[in-house]
Amino acid sequence: AAGGRVHLVVAADTSEEADLGGDVVADKDAVRQLFQSNVPADRLTVTTIEGDRLSPQSVLGAVGALDVKRYEDSVVFYFTGHGAFDPDRGHFFALPRQTQLLRSELEMAIIRREPRTAVTITDCCAGGARYRGKGPMMSKPRPIPTVVSPLFRSLLFDRCGLVSISSSMPGEISLTRGDGKGSLFTYPFVGIVGRNARRPLGWDDLVVEVRSQVKRDFQQVTKGKGLDTTGDNRPDQHTQTVHALMITPALGLRVQQQGDQLKVTEVVPLSPAFHALLEVADVVLAINGAPLRTEEEFSAAVDRSPRTMTIRVRDHRTSEETQVQAHLNP
Question: What is the spatial distance between Cα 237 and Cα 67, in angstroms, rounded to a whole number?
Answer without folding.
Answer: 42
